[in-house]
Amino acid sequence: MNLFNLFLMIHIAAGCICLITGLLAGISKKRKGRHTISGEIYHGFFLLVFISTVVMSIMHWKESAYLFYIGIFSYGLALLGYTSAKIRWKNWLRIHIGGMLGSYIGIFTATLVVNIHRIPLLNELPVLIFWFLPTIIGTPIIFKIGKKYRPAKRERKTVLE
Q1: Are 132 and 108 in contact (CB under 8 A)?
Q2: How far apart are CA 94 and CA 80, in angstroms?
Q3: Entry pTM
Q4: How far, CA to CA in Å, does 7 sit from each of 19, 40, 75, 111?
Q5: What pLDDT is recorded for position 158?
């Protein structure tokens, strides 16, 4: 087995774990326990996906340079979401939701685009559709969930004279 294939196997295994644990974190109650454990596993394996993406794209730069940039962007979202939950800066929850869901859209899109040629009927459609479809579906979900966790506006008190 050559080095590229080793990184590819790590990449595929870590990506599968991310798809599962990201989904588990997303459907779990948002509290310590299943959500946080799934999120920790998701972030750790996303880091492996990122590292393997960088290595493989450098090894086959001519064919895969674009994967390098997608990997940086997607992991950047995961790191932003993960870090915001750890540091808990202002509006951390909305940043956490956007970062984590954005990274999940990224890994889902990559998985779909790479494997779409193996799915009967869907492989008849232009692959470009599958580059954008997860974002088109996922972005409104991010806004809807983010809105749910938006801090309430403070009521303004008026002074009657």
Answers
A1: no
A2: 11
A3: 0.88
A4: 18, 22, 17, 16
A5: 52
